[in-house]
């Protein structure tokens, strides 16, 4: 199946609407083609024993298209090295969860999302109480 730049631009225009996924409707098919092309291995380290992601060589945020020529297969470790803050970003985890087919990967991402969701309010509350009860203002310190 051939993909033209206009197909991608149309899906990109729709992707600005909040109810539409950022990825084209045939993303799973495109990603599958890319994984097959790359031999179901990471193109950087060559491993195939880790969850595999499809990465944009030229990022979408900088005008990159969802064409197989702009995509490559990366293992999770190499993908996180390329985008260091992605592994803890809940939006990124939701996107990967939506497009992954590996049941173990789905389970791990769901667990991480739950932990991230719980961790933020707990951390904020702990900081508040720690500051309130254990950190004395400078003007009250006597030692």
Structure description:
The protein has 143 residues and is mostly helical. It has a domain at 5-84: His-Me finger endonuclease fold, CATH 3.40.1800. The chain is 50% helix and 7% strand. It contains 5 helices and 2 strands, in the order ααββααα. Strands 1-2 form a two-stranded antiparallel ribbon. Helix 4 packs antiparallel against helix 5. The longest helix has 32 residues, at 103-134. The chain is elongated, with a radius of gyration of 21 Å.
Distinctive features:
143 residues, His-Me finger endonuclease fold, 7% strand, 50% helix, elongated, two-stranded antiparallel sheet
Summarize the structure.
With 143 residues, this protein is mainly alpha-helical. It is 50% helix and 7% strand. It has a two-stranded antiparallel sheet with strand order 1-2.
Please compute the radius of gyration using only Cα atoms. Answer: 21 Å
Main sheet makeup: 2 strands, antiparallel
Low-confidence stretches: 1-20
* Average pLDDT taken over every residue: 74
Helix content: 40-55%
Q: Looking across the biggest beta sheet, what order are the strands in?
A: 1-2
Number of helices: 5
What is the CATH topology classification name of the domain at 5-84?
His-Me finger endonuclease fold
How widely separated are the two ends? 74 Å
Which structural class best describes the helix and strand composition? mainly alpha
Shape: elongated
